[in-house]
Write a structure and sequence with these properties.
The chain is mainly β. It contains two helices and nine strands; from the N terminus they run αββββαβββββ.
C-alpha cells in the first residue's frame, strides 16, 4: 500500500509539475526634483582657460524596474537659463552667458529648449553603474550620445550622477571652433562641452 501511495505521488509530480511563475519587476516612475538637481556645463578657451556655469531643467522623468535599473527617461533643458559662474558686471548681466544664448552658440530665442531622450540602458562595469545611450537635440539637430551614470536609491528618491562630453560642432555650433582651419592662431573655443549631472528624482507611483 505504501508503495502504491509513493508511486501515485511521483506520478502526480511528473505529470502535473508546477512551473514557477517569473514576474517582471514592476516599473516605477520618477520625476525630477528641480530644486535639488544641478546640471553644470564646462567650456574651455584657448586664451582665458575654463569657463563654467549651470543650466536648468524644465522637466525630467525616469522609469526604473524593481532591481533599480534605469529603463528609460527624457529631459527638457531651458536654454534661456544658461548662466556663467562669474558675472562680468554689477548690472546683473553676464556677457559670456548672453553670448552663449546668441546665434553664435545656442540661439536660445529660436530654440528655447533642448532635449535628451534615453533609448537604451545597460549595466556598467562598476557597482551601481549603468551605460546610458540616448538622443540629444540642440537647435533642432539630434545626435546620439553615450555616457556612464551612477544610480543611487535613497528611500523614495533616486540620485543620478554622471559626467558626459559632446562635440558642439556636430550640432552646428561652429563659432570659433577648433575644427575650423580659418581660426588656428588664437581666440579659439574648445569644441567639446562637458557636463556634470547631479540629479535627484522623486517617486511618483
Amino acid at each position: 500500500m505504501l508503495y502504491l501511495k509513493i508511486s501515485l505521488l511521483f506520478h502526480l509530480l511528473l505529470h502535473n509539475p508546477e512551473v514557477p511563475k517569473t514576474e517582471k519587476p514592476a516599473e516605477v516612475k520618477y520625476e525630477i526634483n528641480k530644486k535639488q538637481s544641478v546640471l553644470k556645463w564646462f567650456g574651455k578657451k584657448s586664451v582665458g582657460g575654463v569657463i563654467d556655469g549651470t543650466i536648468e531643467l524644465l522637466s525630467g522623468k525616469m522609469s526604473m524596474d524593481g532591481n533599480v535599473l534605469m529603463k528609460g527617461g527624457s529631459f527638457v533643458m531651458d536654454m534661456n537659463s544658461i548662466s556663467h559662474k562669474k558675472a562680468e558686471d554689477k548690472s546683473g548681466k553676464d556677457g559670456i552667458a548672453e553670448h552663449l544664448k546668441s546665434d553664435d552658440f545656442f540661439s536660445s530665442k529660436k530654440f528655447p529648449q533642448s532635449y535628451f531622450v534615453i533609448t537604451k540602458v545597460s549595466p556598467g562595469v562598476k557597482a551601481n553603474e549603468v551605460r546610458v545611450i540616448g538622443n540629444l537635440t540642440i537647435k533642432g539637430v539630434t545626435n546620439g550620445i553615450m555616457f556612464p551614470a551612477i544610480i543611487i536609491k535613497d528611500g523614495d528618491k533616486i540620485k543620478v550622477q554622471a559626467d558626459l562630453t559632446f562635440n558642439r560642432v556636430l550640432w552646428g555650433i561652429t563659432y570659433r571652433s577648433m575644427n575650423l582651419l580659418a581660426l588656428v592662431k588664437e581666440g579659439l573655443i574648445d569644441s567639446d562641452i562637458k557636463m556634470k549631472l547631479d540629479l535627484v528624482f522623486d517617486k511618483v507611483n
